[in-house]
Design brief:
This protein has strands at residues 2-5, 11-20, 30-34, 39-49, 56-66, 73-82, 90-96, 108-121, 126-141. The protein starts with a strand and ends with a strand. The chain has a 5-stranded mixed beta sheet with strand order 3-9-8-5-6, with no helix packed on it. It has a 4-stranded antiparallel beta sheet with strand order 1-2-4-7, with no helix packed on it. Strand 5 (56-66) and strand 6 form a beta hairpin. It has one domain: Immunoglobulin-like. It has 144 residues and is mostly beta strands.
Length: 144
């Protein structure tokens, strides 16, 4: 898992994310996945200090940006309840079901994958929290 510090303003934290192949194994920095296979991004984070006193929602977004001639961007979002004074860590798994990436007429596309963690208060106002993990490149292909 790649680990980054969370910029939380009043407190500290870390955010880890890893791309998992269809068998649930950690994928490398350049992964190849068949479009008909499920895959996921596993996330784990912890915070302490003032930010741990808040309640609201953690939001994990996994962003796929097309590379080269690959047109398109895809995003999946997972919301996780933020519980005031919860002993961390938190965990979340952003699932990409089979055929969730539309390749259109192409038989394969490459995407740069980034996991982003942000937070909102119980009143749905943004909190000063941000972390991004670069998960490398994934090649999605359609096998005849």
């Amino acid at each position: 898992m790649a680990i980054v510090d969370i910029d939380v303003g009043a407190g500290t934290g870390t955010f880890e994310a890893a791309l998992r192949d269809p068998q649930g194994n950690p994928a490398g920095s350049a992964s190849v996945i068949q479009v008909s296979d499920p895959w996921s991004v596993e996330c784990r984070w912890q915070v302490n200090g003032l930010i741990a006193l808040f309640s609201g929602t953690w939001r994990i977004q996994v962003l796929l940006e097309g590379l080269g001639g690959a047109a398109g961007e895809f995003q999946r979002t997972l919301n996780v309840p933020m519980v005031a004074n919860q002993v961390t860590p938190y965990t979340g798994n952003v699932a990409f079901p089979p055929n969730s990436i539309n390749l259109g007429a192409e038989d394969s596309m490459s995407f740069h994958v980034t996991a982003v963690l942000t937070a909102r208060t119980a009143a749905n106002s943004p909190l000063p929290v941000a972390a991004l993990v670069d998960l490398g490149v994934v090649q999605i292909f359609r096998f005849p």
